[in-house]
Design a protein that fits this description.
The chain is α+β, with helices and mostly antiparallel strands and about 725 residues long.
Length: about 725
């Protein structure tokens, strides 16, 4: 980068080629499936800026207590295209979009489809592409929620540059090649630049102290609020962030250069636009989305331990993480979530788990899986980006509820933290986006730079508030140290080179038949499809894919969507339109009373007014139990989320072919109890606690299971669905 600047090919000396803004994506560490290429974007003549429109804050409410206000974002996203002319950026035109994907898709018209020369290798863009950053706060257009603490009007939500020339370093051999459309002078000159070593100046103590938005006590109180919400059944996991802020004692660029040597990471990035008073410095280890145009990949990270001071200590910490039920459950939950997200845009049977690794970085080591999907017809990489944004590892599960809870508890916009930096070739569909963790957000005020760093962790029922506070601190430690703020423990942080340790993959349930999946728009009419009632859960697509993979067409009715609640759909009218062969009442946050359609169907089934076979999963199971006279209580031994448990059963058609006991994965804080008369029989129970895990009507084909048969942790769980779908209404 410095050599290109000195040779007049980048920055202020290169304004005849384009603006002085800088954008680089660095794959740090040794070559691997994570680190293949680093990309340095050449000067751009066109950029795209999205700012926060005028949106009134949502009325005060507490999603952590079950108050979830679903909404439909009617305010369009507006992007402003600027062109570099006569040494300055000038407004050219404005673009409007209803969703993030809709808006970004319209940029294709502004980039030429002509190919780069020479032909870039696999994994690189092959045509002029857009590269830049997306703020987390675009969640307003990817989730059906309104923020109580939205960004200020005019805050930048996204900035992307049209890149018509770039240089790439191939990690396998260090070869650097410049690419551009045929005849571009910049690329020719860049290919002749001789790279020279430049001294990297490490940080020294910053005379300007940092501040934190939370005390340790306040941080712990936020964690306890989340644990209370989990115990009440409102969600499974929430990622809570904490901020450190202060004046910087050097340019963000210098901080980035230091981090490239002290904290190399495969999805690092640097972005700077001085006229926008914005710079981002990221040493992120996490990928949000990669695509070649037809296959999409995401690599969720969940499970953390520090590096050891010795090899022996590091192995000990690694094994401790692998054997920690909380860490494995948290990771399994995230894998199920990302399977769901990719399932929204992928072929039936096209979602799989490709890798499961321990990735060790400079200061920490993580559990990482790679989830892969094949895009279904009509779906694009932008649709996939819309589906996975913001990443599940830095929000939680179920996604909609936890994004609203994050807004409630953090009480501030997240800005770029947990957003993304990356690129997309809108002609081929190829893209690569990171998740902005381990990231410095730098804002310029006159001649001084001020920085913000955030870190957090996924809070589960098993989280220790004290441990989570310390984990957030050392996750942020490398960046805080690079800013000169972090004085305590500066010399005690264990460090090491990037290492990848491959582990055995926990396979996802797969069926090979090709049923269809359709989302009910409120007017759909079918005959003979399986009706799947979605109760705002983040595993619904996993269930739909399992059913379709067994050869059945599926119609998904979103019972808690903004449209459904607005129009007041009644269960009977839904059944009249869909005319299903089977009904599956899906899982979801909160309690069955929060899902009136599910309760109506459950009550009708118990009363004998529905002839189709009915299966309730988790919340759907609880709805059937309540309709039959059972009670719902908190799990006496505490919530279980993402962990397999040994389940005994009394046999019957639903459990045909299963041994007893059998291992199934639970995601529940509440459980049915039968203290009085009930029209349902208990047919499955937790081998250890005796909690009810399955119910069945003695005469009708009505079944409920507390566990999740679609989870990666439910061995052969898909066969429960197969057994259910083998039943007929006239049986």
């Amino acid at each position: 980068m410095r050599q290109l600047e000195e040779d007049g090919l980048l920055g202020d000396k290169a304004i005849r080629y384009g603006g002085p803004d800088q954008m680089v994506m660095v794959s740090g560490g040794p070559a691997s499936h994570l680190s293949k290429h680093s990309i340095l974007c050449g000067p751009s003549k066109r950029r795209f800026i999205v700012r926060q429109p005028t949106i009134a804050p949502a009325p005060p409410h507490k999603p952590s207590k079950g108050e979830i206000h679903l909404t439909e974002q009617t305010q369009p996203l507006v992007g402003h295209v600027e062109e570099w002319k006569h040494g300055s950026w000038y407004h050219a035109t404005s673009i409007f979009g209803e969703t993030m994907a809709d808006l970004l898709g319209k940029l294709q018209e502004l980039s030429a489809p002509k190919p780069f020369f020479p032909a870039p290798s696999i994994g690189l863009p092959t045509h002029p592409f857009w590269s830049g950053t997306l703020a987390y706060d675009l969640v307003q257009w990817t989730q059906p929620i309104a923020l109580q603490h939205p960004p200020k009007e005019g805050e930048i939500l996204a900035v992307l540059w049209l890149i018509e020339r770039f240089a790439a370093e191939r990690k396998s051999d260090g070869r650097i090649t410049a690419f551009a459309c045929d005849g571009d002078e910049w690329a020719s000159l860049a290919n002749n630049v001789q790279a020279t070593a430049h001294e990297v100046v490490n940080s020294h103590e910053n005379p300007h102290p940092e501040t934190s938005n939370l005390t340790d006590q306040e941080h712990q109180e936020g964690i306890e609020a989340i644990r209370e919400g989990i115990a009440a059944g409102e969600f499974y996991q929430v990622n809570l962030g904490r901020w450190w802020e202060g004046q910087l004692n050097r340019h963000p660029r210098a901080i980035f250069e230091e981090l490239c040597t002290t904290n190399p990471a495969p999805f690092s990035a640097y972005l700077c636009a001085e006229d926008l008073e914005l710079a981002l410095v990221s040493s992120s280890p996490e990928s949000l989305l990669q695509s070649d145009g037809s296959v999409v990949r995401t690599a969720p990270i969940k499970g953390t331990r520090p590096r050891g001071s010795t090899q022996e200590e590091e192995v000990l910490l690694r094994n401790e993480m692998l054997n920690d039920e909380k860490e494995r459950a948290e990771h399994r939950m995230l894998v199920d979530l990302m399977r769901n997200d990719l399932g929204a845009v992928s072929d039936v049977g096209g979602v799989r788990i490709e890798r499961f690794d321990v990735e060790a970085y400079a200061n920490v080591q993580h559990l990482v899986s790679q989830v892969v999907g094949t895009l279904s017809e009509g779906q694009t990489s932008l649709d996939a980006l819309q589906a996975v944004f913001p990443g599940g590892s830095i929000t939680g599960c179920p996604r909609t509820v936890v994004c609203a809870t994050i807004d409630e508890l953090e009480q501030r916009p997240r800005s770029y933290w947990t957003g993304s930096i990356g690129w997309i070739d809108l002609h081929s569909g190829a893209c690569a986006w990171n998740i902005l963790i381990r990231t410095l957000i730098a804002k310029k005020e006159r001649t001084r730079w001020f920085g913000s760093i955030a870190a957090g962790g996924g809070i589960t029922i098993g989280s220790s508030p004290e441990s989570e506070v310390e984990e957030a601190k050392w996750k942020a430690s490398a960046l805080r140290k690079a800013c000169g703020w972090h004085v305590e423990q500066r010399e005690s942080l264990p460090t090491g080179e990037l290492e990848i340790h491959s582990l055995e993959v926990e396979p996802a349930p797969v069926a090979t038949k090709q049923g269809s999946i359709q989302i009910d728009d409120g007017s759909m009419r079918t005959n003979g499809a399986v009706l799947l009632v979605d109760n705002l859960d983040s595993f619904t697509h996993n269930i739909a894919h399992a059913i379709a993979g067994l050869g059945h067409d599926v119609v998904v009715h979103q019972s808690r969507s903004f449209t459904a609640s607005l129009q007041g759909h009644e269960a009977q009218s839904i059944l009249s339109r869909i005319r299903p062969s089977h009904i599956v009442l899906g899982p979801g946050p909160g309690q069955p009373k929060d899902s009136p359609v599910t309760m109506q169907i459950a009550t009708s089934a118990i009363e004998g007014r529905i002839e189709q076979p009915v299966l309730g999963i988790c919340l759907g199971h609880q709805a059937l139990g309540l309709a039959a006279g059972m009670e719902l209580i908190k799990v006496p031994t505490g919530p279980v989320h993402g962990s397999p448990r040994s389940i005994r059963h009394s046999g019957g058609r639903l459990f045909e072919g299963f041994t007893s006991p059998h291992s199934f994965t639970l995601y529940n804080s509440l459980v049915l109890t039968n203290e009085g008369d009930s029209s349902l029989n208990q047919v499955a129970w937790n081998e250890t606690t005796g909690d009810i895990m399955g119910v069945q009507h003695p005469e009708r084909q009505i079944f409920g299971v507390q566990f999740h048969p679609e989870s990666v942790g439910s061995k052969n769980g898909i066969n429960v669905l197969s057994n259910f779908l083998g039943m007929r209404a006239d049986a």
